[in-house]
Design a protein that fits this description.
The protein is α/β, with parallel strands linked by helices and 293 residues long. It has 5 helices and 13 strands.
Amino acid sequence: MCGCGSDAAVNPSEDKIPVYYINYAETRTEVTYIDAIKDSPEAIIQRLLIVLAENDPGARYKAPLSMGFKIRDYSFENGILTLNMDSDYKKLEFTTEVLVRAAIVRTLCGSGAVDGVFFTVEGEPLTDHSGFEVGQMNSSTFISNDGNEINTYEEADIRLFFASADGGNLISVYRNKFYSTSMPLERFIVDELIAGPSGQVEGIFPSINPQTSVQNINTKDGVCYVNLSSDFLIPYGNVPTSVSVIAIVDSLCDLPSVDRVQIMVDGVVPETLESSYEYDDRLVITLEEAQNQ
């Protein structure tokens, strides 16, 4: 394995680094601690990758990097670690893969050396069980119920905003669905918007270009930052980009943790989207109103 990046030393704020393993039933992660490593980011990463491949001597836990796959290579730049797995990684059961990913990301990001982790398999971005790119992850990506255990699924009642037939208005629909808590709820909502209406309700249409992909999403101080691919700026059907923006904003602002939304495209805020947006119901109509238009 080879790595590249800064030579600056990292001083973790704590005397210990949490290291996450997987219990033998493969139902949750378990945390242990090692002494903090006072060294360069690259040295810390190399040491932790070795630790994550070593099974617990007491046979209590499984090491996440001893689950039948190997890291082919990795790179480290600007705080982001990219781990390139071999094809055997895809053979992991879905729930096991989530736990493996959580253990690796939480350990590396808890070291003070790594800001985010990106997974690839044979050089291609890792996708989840729905076919969406997982994207960059950090410790907050993985929702836990007690600090250790990862809930595989959680039921969510979300409100999504789809387009009317003329593309000029939005119609809200409620969707009840189980989602993997290895992703933020904000990401789940945007993925559902991109996937479009389920077809079970007549009179609603996609509000976002379905070719759009999510590069990353995070929420800080009530502002949800949504980074999308450039396909987002290509209107889909008769839905203008301005309506697509409000569809995302209104869907996300329905969450108690989100007050405003800032949309970026390929990491940059386009001139037309320079401001962050709050909930805006000016375009929202009922399904009955849409059908009477």
